[in-house]
Amino acid sequence: MPGIELVCCPVNALMKKLPLMRSCKEVTALVIAREDRDLPLAEQLALRVHMVICKACPTFERQVLTMRHAMKQWRNYGADNDE
Ligand SMILES: [Zn+2]
Asked: What separation in Å is there between the alpha carbon of 20 and the centre of ligand 1?
């Protein structure tokens, strides 16, 4: 049918239109980078926008946060047992 845009994936269609859109690959890289350094405001915003529309990336983010928490606990555990 002419005149009707074929949209197989609404997320990908949105990504082409909005400058703040990032792919899942870019977002996972940002989530990992955020562990080491503060992200620029634009990247933080893009991350939040993506987390709202994506189902997989929030799960990944949760896992990274769980890992970070576990590593912290592990470090504290080591410190407690020094004495
Ligand atoms: Zn994603």
From this structure: 13
N-terminal to C-terminal alpha carbon distance within the chain: 75
- In this prediction, residue 49 has a pLDDT band, given cuts at 50, 70 and 90, of very high
DSSP 65-79: HHHHHHHHHHHHHHH
Give the side-chain half-sphere CA count within 13 A for 52.
Answer: 8
55 has pLDDT over 90: yes
44: tokens are: 């933080």
Residue 75 CA, ligand 1 centroid: distance in Å:
31
Query: How far does the centroid of ligand 1 lie from the alpha carbon of residue 4, in Å?
Result: 26
Residue 72 Cα to ligand 1 midpoint, Å, equals 26
| Mean pLDDT of the chain, nearest integer | 83
Q: Are 11 and 53 in contact (CB under 8 A)?
A: yes
